[in-house]
Amino acid sequence: MSACPLKVRICHAEPIVNAGLTALLGSCRQLAVIADEPDVIITDYDDGLKRARLGKHKVMIVTTRARDWNVRSALSSGVAAYLPQHCAAAELGEALAALGAGQCYYQKPLLARLADTLRWLDFTPREAQVLDLMAEGCCNKLIARQLDIEVGTVKTHIKSLFAKLGATHRTQAVVMAIQRGIVCQ
Which positions ≥6 away from 126 have C-beta within 8 Å? Predict the structure, then answer.
C-alpha cells in the first residue's frame, strides 16, 4: 500500500457485521475508516452489486452468499473484492491490500469453483446479467430499464443466450441455467 492510508467506508446492511468490521479495521494504520470520499466501500451483496454497477468506487462485498451465481453476478457487475463473512481477519487485510495496490481480490476457493462452472460457458458479462434478471422473472422491458440498455439489445442478448445454452425459449433457458448452477432458483 502507499504511504497514504486507504480510505474505507463500511456500510453493510447487517448492523453486527458493520460494527465488527468497523472495530476490526478502525485500529489499522494503513486504513482510514471514513464516511466521505472513500477509495473502497465495504458492503453487503445486494448493495454491493448496485454500487459496483455505478462504477464510482471500488466495492468489496462481505456476505454469506457464496454460491457460484452470486460470485459470477458480482464479477460481472464489477465488484472489486468478494469475501464470505466467515473469512479470517487476515484475509480481509489481504483483500484490502490488493485493492490498495489496484488489484481485485476474490477468495481462492470461490474462484476455483467458479472456474469449474465457467469452463464450458462463453457468456459475456452483459449476457450473464440478462440471464440473472430473466431468472428473477423480469420481462425484456424491465431488464432493459435495470441495465440501462434498449429492449432490442436485450432481445439480442437473449438470442445469444439461447444459442449458447441450446434453448428454444426463455423458460427453457432459465431452467437449464438453474440445473447447471449458473443462476439462483
Answer: 76, 147, 149, 157
Q: What's the number of CA atoms in the CB half-sphere (13 Å) around residue 84? A: 14
Choose among 129, 132, 6: nearest CA to 57: 6
Q: pLDDT, tens digit, for every residue of 143-184?
A: 999 999 999 999 999 999 998 888 999 999 999 888 777 776
What is the side-by-side order of every strand in the sheet holding 31-33?
31-33, 6-10, 40-43, 58-63, 81-84, 105-106
**What domains does the chain contain, in order, with CATH numbers?**
6-116 (3.40.50.2300), 125-179 (1.10.10.10)
Quote the cell numbers at residue 17.
457485521
Q: C-alpha cell of 27?
A: 485500529
Confidence of residue 185 (pLDDT cuts 50, 70, 90): low
DSSP 8-class letter at 123: -
